[in-house]
Amino acid sequence: MVCLSTEQYFLLGFHFVLVFGGNCGPAEYTTSDGQCCPLCGIGLVVRKDCTSSTSTSCIPCVRRTYMNVANGLHTCFPCRPCDPGQGLFTRTECTTTENTICDVLDGFYCIGYSANSECNFAVEHTLCVPGQRTKAPGTKSADTVCEDCPLGFYSQHGVNCTAWTDCAAAGQVKTEDGTSTQDVICEVPGRSHMFLVPPFVLTTLATLFCFYLARVKHKKGQSSIIFNNTFLTMLGCFPFTNITPPTEPSEKPRDVIPVQETNHEPVTSYSWYDIYLNSIFPSILVKQFSYTVQINY
C-alpha cells in the first residue's frame, strides 16, 4: 500500500482527471475549460495553461518540494520527512525531481513499508535481559532473538552466556552458588593463625625453661626436679644427670644471697638471676611433668 499524505492524494487525483479526463493526447492535459495543453516535465509544474496562441507555461518546484512525473499540476509535492522518532534517518536528500529516501536507524527494525518497499515506520530492537543471551542480533528488517542461559551458565548483560567458574580447578572453595545472572563466588581457603601460635609459644617457653634449669645452683645435697628427660632432649636441653661441680668454690660469688638454715636443712644460696627466673617459672609449672631427672652436685 502506498503511504501518501492527503494533499498528495488530492494532487494525484486532480492530475489524472486533467490528463485522462478528456480526449487529449498522452503528453497533454485537459484544462478547466476543456482545452488540451502540453504537460510540464519532471521538476516543473504549470504556471499558466496554454492558449490558442501560446504553449503551457511551467515553473520549477521550490525547495523542499518535488515533481517526479510529467504533469499538468499547478503545485509540486512536498518532500517526505524522515522522522527519527519513527526510527528513520535521511539517506538521500529530496530534490526537485526526487522525493527524500529514508532508511532505518541503527538499533531499529522496520515494521511498516510503502508500496515501493521503503520503510516508513521502525521500532527499537528488543534488548535481551540478564540471564539470557543474544541468539540472533537484530537487523533493519527483523527483531533480536533472545534465549535463556542453560543451567551452569550466567549472563549479566544479556549478550553471552558464560560458564560458572570451577572453584576447585582454581584451588579455591565455593562460598555461594551461581545463578542465571551471577557467577559462583569462590574464595581462597584461609590459613588459621591459631595453629601457628602454640608452637611458637611452646618453643619460647621451653627455651627459657631450659635456660632456667641450667642456672639453678644447689650448694648442698641433691635436688629432684620433676621433668621428663626425653622431653628435655626434644627441646634441645642437655640431660641434667651426673653433673659434678667443684667441691669447694674458690671464691664466694658476689651476688649470692645467704639463706638461713632451719630444722637442720641444708642452706642453699641463689643468685639474683636465679630469683628472677624463679619468679617467671614458679615451681608449680615444673610439677606438671611426669618423670624425674636427678641432678647431682
Automatic annotation (TrEMBL):
The chain crosses the membrane at residues 195-214. GO terms for biological process: defense response to Gram-negative bacterium; defense response to Gram-positive bacterium; negative regulation of alpha-beta T cell proliferation; positive regulation of cytokine production involved in immune response; positive regulation of T cell migration. CDD domains: TNFRSF14_teleost. Keywords: Disulfide bond, Membrane, Signal, Transmembrane, Transmembrane helix. This is TNFR-Cys domain-containing protein. One of its GO terms (cellular component) is external side of plasma membrane. Disulfide bonds join C37-C50, C40-C58, C61-C76. InterPro entries: TNFR/NGFR_Cys_rich_reg (IPR001368). Residues 1-21 form the signal peptide. The keyword Disulfide bond applies. The keyword Transmembrane helix applies.
